[in-house]
Every structure is written in C-alpha cells, then in structure tokens.
Amino acid sequence: MSEALLERHGQVAELRLNRPEKLNALTDDMVRQVLARLDEVAESPARVLIVTGAGRGFCAGFDLSLAESAGGAEGDETAAWMARQERFASLVTRLRAIPQPTIAAVNGAACGAGFGLALACDLRIASASARFNSAFIKVGMSSCDIGVSYLLPRAIGTTRAFEMMLTGRMVDAPEAERIGLVSSVHDPDALMPAATALAEQIAANGGLSTWMTKRGMWANLEAGSLAAALELENRTQILMRGTGSLAARAAERGFVKS
C-alpha cells in the first residue's frame, strides 16, 4: 500500500502520510512518494491541500531504524547522507512551491522532520492530542534541520524558537495555540472537518488570487524593506486587476450593484 495517499474532494486535496504503525516516520521511499504526490497536486485543479497523518501520529520524523546507513557505496557514505538530507529537505521547498495553499492538520506527534513538515505548510491546525518538538538535538544531531531554523522563528519569534530548538522539549496543543504555532485546536474527531471547512473557505476566493497571496506572503517574509514589499504588492495587484475579475467578483459577492 502507498505510504502517501492522495485524495481529492472537489477543490480540496488531502495528502495522508500512511505508515501508522511507525507514527508515519519518514523513509527514503516514503519521501519520494510524498514528493510525487505533491507534483500531482500542483498539476491538479485542487485549490487547497490538507496534509495529515494516518492513525495517531502526524509524523514522527526520520525513521531512526535507518540511522546506521544511507545506502551509499563503500567509502561514499557521506555523499549518500548528503543526498538523503537534501531529498528530505526538498519536502519543504516543494510544499512552498506548489500553487495551492497548504494546511497541516496535525493529528498527533509532529517531531523532528515531521515538525519541519508541519512548519512548511502555510497554515497549521491541531488535534488536542498533537505534540511538537525539534527532536534531532535529543539524538546527537542539530535542531537546524528540514527548514526548522528558518520557519520556526518566523512562526513564533526567536526567543521561543531558540528555547524549543535548544531543549528539544515537547510542546502540547494548548501551548502551541497560545504561542501561535497553530491557529486552532480541535477535538480529535473534529480536526479533519475543521481542516476541510478552512480549506473550502480559502478555495472560495479563487485559484489565482490564493496562489498570488501565498507567493506574495512568502516573498515578502524575505523582503529587505517595506518599499520592496510594497513594490511586489503593487505589481501583484495590477496583475490581478488585468484578469478582469475585480468588478465581476465584487458584484458576485454583493459589494457593488451589477
């Protein structure tokens, strides 16, 4: 059975990590499957993607049973590990690059690379059973992994990010909501309905407008100045005005008389 299941319901796609017996810990093959599913989503008519996990975990991170070797040729193990590291990290850039806004519906543990996967999504909501941590520092590695050192401080600020990354401690769902790591917390049975309702609310705004908003937001998180951010915003708005949808959508939504 596939370890990355993709379904589409109308304008909403759902990608479900599917190794529940291992809390959806990532293997090399599983990462390749997830990347392939993300390519499918990017080329599909879906307007929003929900990412979640099967069973009681979101993603426990890298499957540590693979820690002994990356499968490289004798004498070339470092190169094999670098290739593996870059492949895993490409999950972050691929999630960011697809045109669809992404929602992480965190249904359980999101640890290590799984934490990075959740952070790579544009939005995060959580089950009351969700837990988050930067796990690699606990096993002799750096917490700077899978985009966490870039994404986490932008989500919750540098002080809290340093504390999470240096201690590796678990953050439960109520704390995650309080510090802005997730936008809302739900009973386990209500998580996916809440994620779907949020996705449908986003999808109702149109494909190009949500894509431009996603791209503009990420680009301006890296903008060097307010002037540069405004320049991008101004050009994006003129581009959107050129589609001819402004007056039509305003009338459709009842903001002006048609």
Explain how this protein is built.
The strands form 2 sheets. The protein has a 6-stranded mixed β-sheet with strand order 1-2-3-5-7-10, sandwiched between helices. It is 47% helix and 16% strand. It is globular. The protein is of the alpha/beta class and 258 residues long. Helix 4 packs across helix 5 (158-167) and helix 8 (207-221) packs antiparallel against helix 9 (226-241).
- Stretches where pLDDT is under 50 for at least 5 consecutive residues are none
CATH class of the largest domain: Alpha Beta
Strand content: 15-25%
Shape: globular
Listing every helix as H and every strand as E from the N terminus to the C terminus, the arrangement reads EEHEEHEEHEEHHEHEHHHH
At the fourth level of CATH, the homologous superfamily of the largest domain is 2-enoyl-CoA Hydratase, Chain A, domain 1
Overall average residue pLDDT: 93
Query: C-alpha Rg, in Å?
Result: 19 Å
The largest beta-sheet arranges its strands as 1-2-3-5-7-10
Q: N- to C-terminal separation? A: 52 Å
CATH architecture of the largest domain: Alpha-Beta Complex
